[in-house]
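lol forgot to send this yesterday, sorry. struct tokens for the thing we talked abt
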């Protein structure tokens, strides 16, 4: 019951929540919440929009579809509409958030082991999972977008984003610049801030808040650089 209350409390009392989670790691509740949110999001998306057409439209803007022949495009559409593929899409979309949390916890566990760590890996997983609870806001934004906005106006890489990318015209803009802007949204900064707070209870006293912030945001900037390089 305490785990459920902490899921809600992370929104208005993050400091107290992260302190409790770090001292008594709760892993199942936050991971289950994140997984259920992902399942709902994927089910709504696959029900309201054609994922293949949206993917093709984004690829066209990036100049990657011109090389496909009509036959290849028809085969790709047939594969995308296959019920088995849709089931695999739901399964992959449901499992990915949990794997992402575990991977991120492992990265920071290793990084703070070098800087000065006092918490266990389970505690890092718990803190990381609770830090991602505000991702619910992104899930709600995604669902509202696919339900309200016409499919022809939806871009896959903009779904759920709440930030500067919504206020710019991507047509004519450098793909790399847009990729960078799309990563700098409100929810991402919120999650990173919670990680800085939470990891403060899992690191040595000599590790300052500034050092934690540099480590947390530094890893994120490396990720953003990777996404920009792929754009």
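and heres what i got for the seq, position by position
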């Amino acid at each position: 019951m305490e785990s459920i209350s902490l899921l809600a409390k992370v929104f208005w009392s993050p400091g107290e929540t992260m302190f409790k989670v770090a001292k008594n790691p709760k892993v199942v509740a936050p991971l289950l919440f994140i997984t259920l949110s992902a399942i709902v999001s994927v089910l709504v998306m696959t029900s309201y929009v054609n994922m293949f057409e949206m993917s093709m439209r984004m690829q066209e803007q990036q100049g990657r579809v011109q090389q496909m022949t009509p036959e290849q495009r028809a085969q790709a559409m047939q594969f995308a509409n296959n019920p088995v593929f849709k089931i695999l899409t739901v399964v992959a979309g449901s499992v990915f958030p949990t794997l992402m949390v575990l991977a991120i916890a492992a990265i920071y566990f290793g990084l703070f082991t070098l800087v000065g760590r006092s918490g266990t890996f389970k505690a890092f997983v718990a803190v990381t999972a609770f830090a991602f609870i505000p991702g619910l806001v992104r899930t709600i934004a995604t669902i509202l977008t696919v339900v309200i906005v016409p499919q022809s106006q939806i871009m896959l890489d903009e779904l759920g984003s709440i930030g500067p990318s919504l206020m710019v015209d991507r047509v004519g803009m450098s793909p790399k610049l847009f990729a960078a802007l799309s990563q700098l949204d409100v929810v991402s900064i919120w999650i990173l801030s919670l990680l800085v707070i939470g990891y403060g209870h899992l690191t040595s006293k000599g590790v300052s808040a500034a050092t934690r912030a540099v480590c947390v945001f530094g890893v994120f900037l490396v990720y953003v650089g990777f996404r920009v390089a792929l754009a």
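The chain has eleven helices and no strands. anyway ping me if u want another try
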